[in-house]
Amino acid sequence: GRWDAAPDLERFLGSFYQYFEARGRRGALARHLSHLAALAFTVGFSFTLLFFVDWQAILSCSSEETCRAVSFCYTQPFHRIGLWRWSVLLCFLLFFIYWA
After folding, report:
1. Per the database entry, which stretches of residues form a coiled coil (predicted)?
2. What local confidence, expressed as pLDDT, does residue 86 receive?
3. 87 lies in which domain range?
4. Could you give the CA distance from residue 44 to residue 33 in angstroms, rounded to a whole number?
């Protein structure tokens, strides 16, 4: 019936404590949304650093003069993708499929 004991008391008390700690549903929702926003920022920033930045050009700089002529980002990021960038793209696509 309605007043039966919770089948998993530890899980019930844990969720009850989280509800109490967040001061209600709005707080719990705000916490989850902020965690999702932080995760989205981390994934987006990592993707930008790993896919759009030309690390080979950056690491080939040996002096200030040689670095001035270097483009730090790919001008056409989806043109002539190598194995490393294909693997980065595939990993992030799989993550977004899992996340959706």
Report:
1. none
2. 92
3. 9-99
4. 16
Beta bridge partners of 53: 73
For the segment 6-21, what is each residue's pLDDT rounded down to a tens digit? 788 888 888 888 888 8
Instruction: Give a yes or no: residue 21 inside a domain.
Output: yes
In a domain, 26, yes or no: yes
Q: Of the candidates 33, 47, 37, which has an alpha carbon nearest to the alpha carbon of residue 93?
A: 47
Q: In this structure, what is the dihedral angle of CA atoms 21, 16, 9, 4, given to the nearest 10 degrees?
A: 160
Tally of structural domains, the chain: 1
What local confidence, expressed as pLDDT, does residue 75 receive?
A: 86
The model carries a pTM of 0.66
pLDDT < 50: residue spans in the chain? none
Residue 3 lies in a domain: no
